[in-house]
Each structure stands twice: as structure tokens, then as C-alpha cells.
Q: What sequence folds into this?
């Protein structure tokens, strides 16, 4: 994995190994915020930004932690850095776009507990990506997350107009929809793997 | 505690997580590990046990420290406490069974960001004495394991024709591979939720509440 080319990494994380639909990371915001299209896109952008910051910091931290032989501190230091990055995004958003800040609501601080973010940090460590590879991986993961969120939001906006039996409504319906979307993404399997 | 509300008994605390507020089927929390690792019943059980351990440890510590943690930094403190226990469980599983460790992979470390655990720390452990917090955490942990097992067994039975590694259908069985793939996870959980919704909609109390309830 360590010698994969940049385009391979990018394509694989956006499509074939999409974080949400193929690896089940970041499902809570995926189900929670994907109700409307105009919140899905900013949410995806915010998450991508946090992923990028987290990936940068995680690379530095991993270097430090390995240098001092403190591998057992890796997880704790990662999560603290992610929590701070989320705080930063929250403050910036509150200052520059209060409307968006309110629209995202509780899901903004919850980015901290978005598995996709920690997932980026952990996977890049496990796969021993170089610095540039890690950056591309983080961007790819963010773009993939946004793509899944936007697709799902579009589907759900349509679905609001459809007549659905009461029993199916809510999470069950979202999950079935996600299953179909995931099935469609299976078609990309193998993309970016070759070479 | 909210004044005027009757203190629930220990049994009620325990049953709340196990059944009434089941994290997987009722609250739909902690989905990421629930879907990612449940390709077999054994994996599901291991994940459930690890989560329960972390839940118990963090509930005890958060509850003991509840009067010392300043409100402003409580979330950060909870996360550090949870991360500590996850690190312990990560090393424990690696020491006990390397096959399970490799099957679960980074998802053990991802227990840190299981929203259910942070939710419990914030909503319950930080307001209750240790014993009560532990009882509730045990109920939640078992409820979560039960949910994972329900997912894992269905996916293993259909996907590989076995349960706990024991073949069920003989040599002629054609495995339903999609169950082991990501879409299968979504479909099986969706189907379980459907079943629960249907079952709940049939109790008389739910029929009355149905008029009031609105869905997003």
C-alpha cells in the first residue's frame, strides 16, 4: 500500500473504498444531516477540512510518538488533536456564517465523534502513507464523504414527496436507501487498485 | 436527578439499555462498528465485549470523577477517559487472540468515537453514583452486543451458510455473498429496524402515540 500512486489513492478512497458506503465510517452524520441538500454540502466541506487538519497533525504526531517509543499514546493524542480542530472550525463558522452554524446545530461538535475523521488518521498510520500520500488520502476521504452525503440528501429530498408506509419511515428507510447506494458503489470495486 | 421524578430501580436501569433503549435498534447509535465488523457472529461478539468493557470502565471513572470535572472541559475529559480504556482493550485483544485482532483491525480503536459511549458518559454517568452508572452501562453494553450478534448471525447465516463457524446447510449451499459485502450490512440492519418498527406499531400504547408522533 505504501507505494500506491497518488491518483490511485484518490480514486480508491473517493469511489471504490468510499468511507461511508464501503467502510461504514461516519454513518451518524450521514443519516443525521443528509435530510436537505443545502446543509449536506457545507457539512461535507467542514468535515473535509477537519479531516485535512487531522491528517496533517496525525502525521506529525505519529512521527513524534514513534520516535519516543510511546505508541500506546497514539490514539489519545489523535483524538485530542481532532477535538481541537473541530473547536477551531466551530469558532470560524460561528464568526463568519452564523446561519450555517445554526443549521448544522448539534452535528457540528459531533464531528469530533465522526469515525471517518479518526478513521483517516488511523488508516493512514496503518498503511504507512508518506506525507503527500496522507494528504491526498484525507482529501479523497473528504470528497468521498461529501459525495455520499450529497447523493443521499438528493435522494431523501425526493423521497419526502413519495408516499411511504408508516412502518418504513425514519432510520429503516434511510438504511435501505444507503444499502442501494452502496450497492451502486460496488460497481466501482477494483478502481484504483490496479498496478 | 430531576426532582419529582421517581428514582428508577437498578433492574430498570439495567433493562433500559438491554431492551427499552437498545442502542442499536431503538436509538440507532454506534452504527459504524455495528455494520463494519458484523460479517460473522464471532466478530460481532468480540466487538460487543470490547465495547462493553470500555463502556463499564468509562462509566465507573466518569461517575467517580463527576464532581471534579469542570463543566467547560467535560467532553474533552470524557474522550480522554474513553480513549484510555480503548487503548487498554486494544492491547488486551492483541494479547488474547491475534486472529480476532486482525479481523477487527482499526475498528477496535474506533470504539473511541462510538457516539453511544460518549452519549452514556454525558447523559447518565456524569449524573449518577458509580453503582447506578455501572448497572446502566452493563445494560447498554449487553444491549449493544445483542444488537451486533443479531446482525452478525443473520449476515453469517446468509453470507457463508454457517453460524459461529459451524456449517449449517451442507455442501450444496450457495452463499449469498452480498450479505458479507457493505450493502448487506445496510440491508440487514434496515430489515431489523423494520421488524422492530412493525412490532412496536402493533402494541396498543404505540397505536395511541402514533397520532402525536411525527417523522422527519
A:
Amino acid at each position: 500500500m505504501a507505494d500506491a500512486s497518488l491518483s490511485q489513492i484518490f480514486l480508491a478512497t473517493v469511489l471504490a473504498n468510499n468511507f461511508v458506503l464501503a467502510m461504514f465510517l461516519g454513518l451518524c452524520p450521514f443519516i443525521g444531516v443528509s435530510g436537505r441538500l443545502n446543509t449536506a454540502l457545507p457539512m461535507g466541506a467542514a468535515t473535509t477540512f477537519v479531516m485535512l487538519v487531522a491528517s496533517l497533525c496525525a502525521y506529525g504526531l505519529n512521527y513524534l510518538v514513534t520516535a519516543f517509543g510511546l505508541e500506546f499514546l497514539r490514539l489519545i493524542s489523535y483524538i485530542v488533536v481532532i477535538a481541537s480542530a473541530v473547536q477551531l472550525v466551530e469558532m470560524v463558522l460561528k464568526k463568519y456564517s452564523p446561519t450555517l452554524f445554526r443549521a448544522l446545530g448539534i452535528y457540528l461538535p459531533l464531528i469530533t465523534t465522526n469515525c471517518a475523521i479518526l478513521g483517516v488518521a488511523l488508516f493512514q498510520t496503518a498503511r504507512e502513507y508518506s506525507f503527500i500520500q496522507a494528504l491526498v488520502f484525507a482529501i479523497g476521504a473528504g470528497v468521498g464523504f461529501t459525495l455520499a452525503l450529497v447523493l443521499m440528501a438528493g435522494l431523501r429530498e425526493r423521497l419526502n414527496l413519495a408516499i411511504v408506509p408508516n412502518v418504513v419511515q425514519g432510520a429503516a428507510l434511510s438504511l435501505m436507501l444507503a444499502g442501494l447506494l452502496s450497492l451502486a458503489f460496488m460497481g466501482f470495486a477494483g478502481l484504483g487498485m490496479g498496478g | 436527578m430531576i426532582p419529582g421524578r421517581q428514582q428508577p430501580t437498578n433492574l430498570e436501569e439495567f433493562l433500559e439499555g438491554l431492551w427499552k433503549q437498545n442502542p442499536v435498534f431503538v436509538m440507532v447509535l454506534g452504527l459504524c462498528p455495528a455494520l463494519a465488523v458484523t460479517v460473522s457472529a464471532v466478530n460481532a461478539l468480540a466487538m460487543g465485549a470490547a465495547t462493553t468493557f470500555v463502556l463499564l470502565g468509562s462509566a465507573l471513572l466518569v461517575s467517580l470523577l463527576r464532581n471534579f470535572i469542570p463543566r467547560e472541559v467535560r467532553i474533552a475529559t470524557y474522550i480522554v477517559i474513553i480513549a484510555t480504556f480503548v487503548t487498554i482493550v486494544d492491547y488486551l485483544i492483541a494479547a488474547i487472540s491475534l486472529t480476532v485482532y486482525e479481523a477487527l483491525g482499526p475498528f477496535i480503536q474506533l470504539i473511541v468515537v462510538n457516539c453511544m459511549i460518549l452519549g452514556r458518559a454525558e447523559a447518565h454517568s456524569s449524573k449518577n453514583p458509580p453503582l447506578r452508572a455501572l448497572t446502566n452501562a452493563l445494560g447498554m453494553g449487553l444491549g449493544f452486543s445483542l444488537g451486533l450478534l443479531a446482525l452478525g448471525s443473520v449476515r453469517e447465516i446468509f453470507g457463508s451458510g454457517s453460524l459461529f463457524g459451524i456449517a449449517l446447510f451442507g455442501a450444496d449451499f450457495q452463499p449469498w455473498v452480498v450479505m458479507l459485502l457493505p450493502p448487506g450490512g445496510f440491508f440487514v440492519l434496515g430489515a431489523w429496524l423494520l421488524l422492530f418498527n412493525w412490532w412496536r406499531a402493533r402494541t396498543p400504547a404505540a397505536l395511541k402515540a402514533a397520532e402525536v408522533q411525527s417523522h422527519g
